[in-house]
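Justification of computing resources. Each target in the renewal requires a structure prediction run like the one illustrated here; the chain below, 464 residues long, is used simply to show the kind of job we budget for.
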Amino acid sequence: MFIEYIAFLSVNGVDVMDKYNEFRLKYPDFYYHGFTIQDNKDHIFITYDFEIKGLMRFNPTLKVPKKQGLKYDKSLLNKIIFSSGLAEIPSYWKATCSPNIIIEGEYLDEYQINWLKKLIYNGLGEFFYVNKIEVNESNFVNIKSNGENKKIEDNNEYDGYLVAVGGGKDSLTSLEILKDIPNKKAFIINNRKVCFDGANVAGIKNEDIINVERLFDKKIIDLNNQGFLNGHTPISSCIAFISYLSAYLNGIKYVVLSNESSANESSVMGTNINHQYSKSLEFENDFRSYTSKYLTNKIEYFSLLRPLSELQIMKIFSKYPKYFNHFISCNNGGKTKNIGKTDGWCNSCAKCLFIYILMNNFVSEEELVSIFKENLLDKKQMLNYFLELLGKTTNKPFECVGTIDEVTYVVNNLIKKGGNLPYLLKYYKDNYTLVEPDDKILTKIDTNNNVNEKLLDLIIKELN
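Resulting structure tokens:
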């Protein structure tokens, strides 16, 4: 992924910082005009309306299933839908980084404006860094709003768990931890087959799966092809609001994500730039604060796996081989095969290598090769990703990967076991000082989390 982003440093031979300044001058205003809703029997269909004034209008859509017969407050529904639209802004705004964002139809107070500024600034941290765009957090954008800010009371009652399933090991681990918890549903976006398969293996029936269809406006790709700015956006912030909206429309109390403590580590050494910002505890706490203050405090969003590291999650996941052929953590494999509706491992990205390394600590090489079809630790072309994962470069891979300490632990542990070492492990042994693996990394619980005591007991029981 890093190689892909490097291309953005020069657009048609012009320095990206110059393009950034040019676009801001030429297109100073970005509008969030609002949205329309079609309220149907079993779902609502939402169309958002964004505009870079003088350039292009964008209309991404959402189709969200709802529980038939459930009564809900339309004013609160509108507020949740509006707030979800705020998280969609960075995906379109980044094309020109317009200095003004104008929000129509809803008033934002100072707290909300600062909340949105923080999301854009931190959520686009990687985008700014990779494109070498220098921005000032205090004045990189001016957010204005017009409209009313009505106070809403929520008289609804909620129950049950909505578990977001993304196709990887993490959400399947959450489903396994919650296997004896009744009244739970799975939340999936865009019909990914691997998500349905994993949820079904975990015992979730199709009628208990809430599948949301989210379509971004492909006109943004046209702009990218014309040389407008592009890069990583905080997609997990969109997922946070969409899952919250789905919980509201289906009367569900707990929205359960599967983001781990490892997501808090920055991607660029010595900075706060984090590819996983919208998966971090910082974002989670900000989101919980926003929703309880401006939407409803009766729906609770949290990450079940926050007490755990990626390595600990893999320790639990590896106990359940029933999932080995029903998970995919590679972003490229899904893209190359029918837009993610069927999936595979690309075996050439940092994410594939990371999963392979961690899994190797708990699963035999024979089992691993049956999943990945080759030994990724024996691929010379993976060396740069390998060094990035180990913190031997200025940045980690711009992927959702674990901490440097976790990878270092596993690599040293694998070398310690001896035998005929594959290329990458031999390279490490020949060029770096080996350290004695400390097994405490497998048992230490991160206490900075929003998990209640009942669920925390289930996590610890599963881990040990």
